[in-house]
Design goal:
alpha+beta; four-stranded antiparallel β-sheet; globular; 6 strands
Length: 207
């Protein structure tokens, strides 16, 4: 959890949309070199990103704004709203619409991964797992892969569930995620650990 001057800088950016280093120095009782170091670290950690603002005929000013990761540090009501929306569809007898939506969403994920695999020209299961893990990381799954020491089978592990709130209402994402791995690797898949049942990760054994 960020705190201290770095969090204060992020708060200023959140309030103003974007800030220059000079504007930040004016707002904080810190030396410009220190503020610059904080910005450098926050950018390296992907909490902020650069943008340029033009005013007049001069060179554009270098500004910084929050990334998706940076915005994620602040409270959001979206997960609760999504959960309530799903519950509403279920109570209104629209489960078919809900199922169709999730299936199409997972189909798009699969097609995206297929393109990535083609671009990387993967030839081995290990390479396929690596590209899959990279996409899952971008989606917020904090993924890992390895092999079962006893069977030698490939293991895909998801240490975070981006659909945690949704799964409180429907387990469709869990079912579709297992089918997703089956489509990707062309083998049977067994889920050996499961976050909704109290495990620290969802683990899928391939083959």
């Amino acid at each position: 959890m960020l705190n201290g001057p770095k969090k204060e800088l992020l708060d200023f950016i959140k309030h103003h949309g974007q800030l220059t280093i000079d504007e930040s120095v004016e707002k904080m009782d810190l030396a410009k070199t220190t503020v610059r170091e904080h910005f450098t670290q926050l950018e390296k950690d992907e909490y902020i990103e650069r943008s340029y603002e033009r005013s007049g005929r001069g060179r554009p000013s270098l500004c910084f704004q929050l990334t998706k990761k940076g915005n994620g540090l602040y409270p959001s009501y979206e997960p609760e709203m999504m959960r309530e929306f799903i519950r509403y569809l279920q109570t209104e007898g629209e489960h078919g619409i809900l199922e169709d939506f999730f299936k199409k969403f997972w189909d798009r994920r699969y097609e995206k991964l297929k393109l990535l695999l083609e671009e990387e020209k993967v030839t081995t299961e290990e390479e396929k797992a690596r590209v899959t893990r990279k996409m899952l990381d971008e989606e917020g799954f904090m993924a890992e892969f390895g092999h079962n020491p006893d069977s030698g089978k490939l293991m895909m592990k998801e240490c975070n569930c981006p659909f945690r709130e949704i799964i409180k209402v429907t387990k469709l994402p869990c079912k579709l995620e297992k089918e997703f791995y089956k489509r990707v690797f062309g083998k049977e898949v067994e889920r050996t650990s499961y976050i909704p049942e109290g495990d620290f990760a969802c683990t899928y054994c391939i083959g």
